[in-house]
Amino acid sequence: MKQEQIAAQLFTLREFLKTEEDIYNTLKKVSKIGFRSVQISGMAKIDTYKLKNMLNEFSLTVCATHTPFERLKNEIESVIEEHKILGCYHIAIPSAPDEFKSFEGALEFAKECNEIGKKLKEENIVLSYHNHSFEFKRYDSKTWLEILIENSEPQLLMF
Q1: Number of domains into which the chain is organized
Q2: CA 158 to chain centre
Q3: pLDDT tens-digit series, residues 76-86
Q4: Which of the two residues, 38 and 5, has the higher pLDDT score?
């Protein structure tokens, strides 16, 4: 049986993740205080293998990442490879780009998320969306988030 763990969301520590040395020191501290898993977001660019070695050194796993939509759309193969290296099988889109923040935009975003989600599902990677307050803006009688949910496939995009 898989044991559930509480993970540290690294975005909350982004001020301490600006360099490779910062990342190392922060992961060390996160591990020392008892976390065994992290969600990766808000950190400086780092080689995936270096990051994996740091995580291993401190007995940390990656439960999820926040991966920008643009990377998922334009670099899906690299994103998949990085996640496999990290042993991470959950990607969250941290926010929708501004060009999708309309009724029509929500429809297009749902369509594109379905396409990305299908590719990720084939690799046993879950795609989800991290919402904010702007998704509750109404377009006619529905919020942006309702439009997205109603037009995305539940097996391809989670919330």
Answers
A1: 1
A2: 11
A3: 999 999 999 99
A4: 38
Specify the residue for token string 């998704």.
Answer: 135
One-character DSSP codes across 86-132: HT--EEEE----GGG-SHHHHHHHHHHHHHHHHHHHHTT-EEEE---
On whether residue 2 sits in a domain, the answer given is no
15 contact partners, CB below 8 Å, separation of at least 6: none
Nearest to 129 by CA among 119, 114, 108: 114
Q: Rounded to a whole number, what is the largest CA-CA distance in the chain? A: 52
Sign of the dihedral through C-alpha 157, 148, 6, 61: positive
Q: Which residues face 92 on adjacent strands?
A: 66, 128
What count of residues does the chain have? 159
| Residue 50, domain extent | 8-150
Instruction: Please indicate, yes or no, if residue 15 is contained in any of the structural domains.
Output: yes
**Residue 113 confidence class, pLDDT cut points 50, 70, 90:** very high
- Span 51-72, mean pLDDT? 98
Write out pLDDT tens, residues 124-136. Answer: 999 999 999 999 9
CATH classification at residue 136: 3.20.20.150
pLDDT at residue number 4: 63
CA-to-CA distance for 31 and 68, rounded, in angstroms? 26
